[in-house]
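Q: I'm writing a short explainer about DUF5131 family protein for a general audience and would like to include a description of its predicted shape. Could you first generate the structure from this sequence?
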Amino acid sequence: MMGTRMFKSVTRTWNPWTGCDHGCTYCWARDLATGRLQRSSKYMAGFNPRFHPTALDVKFRPGEFVFVVSMGDLWGSWVPVYAIEAILEVIRRFPKTDFLLQTKNPARYLEFDLPHNVYAGVTIESDVPHP
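A: Of course. Here's the predicted structure. Afterward I'll give you a sentence or two in plain language.
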């Protein structure tokens, strides 16, 4: 099992959209994208939001738990509807796979018909400094 520090049950990540404009102070994904991953094709533009349509050509296995867009915020106001719909269409093709979505903009979930196999989560950021 792949797992992450936050989500032990995640077996895989899938990033057809990367980047974010929230500018959170403690963003591990931005640090990773502009550090260790900066030479990979997905992060040549740093952490600027980008759609990666070639990543839509993917297969998932029944029983997997996939963290969708772990390296960005798919539901940010800057994300075009067509990109979200394209990603949701792929999710619909795999009804026996579960998908985790996370956002700082949960109201945007209401604009879309989320498939039954989606766990819609929220990330809350604080302006309180951390050591």
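A: For your explainer, you could say: The chain has a mean pLDDT of 83.
Q: Perfect, that's easy to follow.
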